[in-house]
Design brief:
two-stranded antiparallel ribbon, 2 domains, 2 strands, 4% strand, mainly alpha, single chain
Length: 112
């Protein structure tokens, strides 16, 4: 993620050389890191927490957001669908509308 400069070799992501790029450039290409310590917004649903991850990709302008234009509504629908796909992939589909604060986040609390 640009924290360390490689001393040799290349870093290839989606067929592109991202070696030595700044973190914000790498994130714009669709690759981001997360820390093992998960911080959730407990008063938001699991789905809303997933949606927060899309903030860099919302592509909304001030005026479109202000007037809730058709393009904003379409983008919201797309992001909700993608977030629901991620929730299903992470086996959170049935819990996506529950408050994150009510869900177990420690793997020792989960029954696997």
């Amino acid at each position: 993620m640009g924290t360390y400069s490689p001393s040799a070799g290349k870093v290839i992501f989606s067929g592109k050389d991202i070696t030595g790029l700044k973190s914000y450039v790498i994130v714009r290409q669709g690759l981001a890191r997360s820390f093992q310590r998960t911080v959730l917004f407990s008063e938001m649903t699991a789905l809303q927490n997933i949606l927060l991850g899309f903030h860099l990709f919302s592509e909304t302008g001030f005026w479109n957001s202000l007037f809730n234009s058709r393009s904003i509504q379409e983008k919201k629908t797309q992001l909700l669908e993608k977030a629901a796909e991620i929730a299903d992939f992470m086996e959170l589909g049935q819990s996506k509308d529950q408050l994150a604060g009510n869900l177990p986040t420690d793997t020792s609390e989960c029954l696997v």
